[in-house]
Amino acid sequence: MKRFVILLFTVVTTTVFSQSRKIPTDTMVVTNHNTIIKNVSISYKATTGTQPVWDDKGNPTATLYYTYYERNNVKDKANRPLVISFNGGPGSASVWMHIAYTGPKVLNIDDEGYPVQPYGVKDNPNSILDIADIVYVNPVNTGYSRMIKDKDGKLPDRKKFFGINADIKYLAEWINTFVTRKNRWESPKYIIGESYGGTRVMGLANELQNNQWMYLNGVIMVSPADYKLYSTSQPVYSALNLPYFTAAAWYQKVLPNELQQKDLLDILPEVENYAINTLMPALAKGGFISDIEKQQVAKKNGLLFWFK
Prior knowledge:
Elements lengths: L1 H16 L9 E11 L2 E15 L5 E12 L10 E5 L8 H8 L2 E3 L13 E3 L9 E5 L8 E2 L16 H18 L7 E6 L1 H16 L6 E5 L12 H6 L1 H10 L5 H4 L3 H22 L5 H14 L4
Parallel strand pairs: 4-7, 4-9, 9-10
Antiparallel strand pairs: 1-2, 2-3, 3-7, 3-8, 5-6
Helix pairs in contact: 3-4, 6-8, 8-9
């Protein structure tokens, strides 16, 4: 009996004092900061908050969490680029593009990517905020972004958000709203996606142009992953990896001297042409490839990828 009373008291207490977690549907917080980029002090405004996705009847069905950085004291916003940034997954928030790549602050890490003390962030000398404003968008169910229950307490159909085409459709609508609210229609607009984000921004470019009347100035793909090819060992997948491997080897200064001395932008067109027109057909031949062609391809691959 005593145990039952204690258990009942615990349940009642937990129920009475427990907090209900609810994401605000439409809100924002604005703060001002400074960072150093390329040895220049940059003053900027950070806006973070949520913005809804609506259904055909104007009811919010989800809210997306975002972080928006704008450089202060910019008089001509019409000529200042806006970069809309995504990570991949497809279940990843835009955290790594944000605090490890293009944002005004990056994590305290060493050259190998391990965190160092004191833990936290530091100025990002390679941020793009000196030349462009950036918004980092978290798709539904990443970060603080969530679906919203209707007046009857029912969540929307998951198919509205989770799927290659569904993901593209609702994000294009969200971007339209964001650009309208921030008065950035005249600004040059770019979208950038990492990993699965590469697939996402390819689709978004088409969706924005055809259904939102938004013509982008550019699409940037960071190590894009096509999940219909990913880890399939198909010739297309294997061949298209070669330019990435070559770029990594060039950065690490481990290419043969004749290539290492060249600028990367001079090397990549040659590698891309070789990957598409020589390596891909060679891999597709499989066991039917001749010994001579096999040796030629192996030698070329070694020059473009293998270490010295």
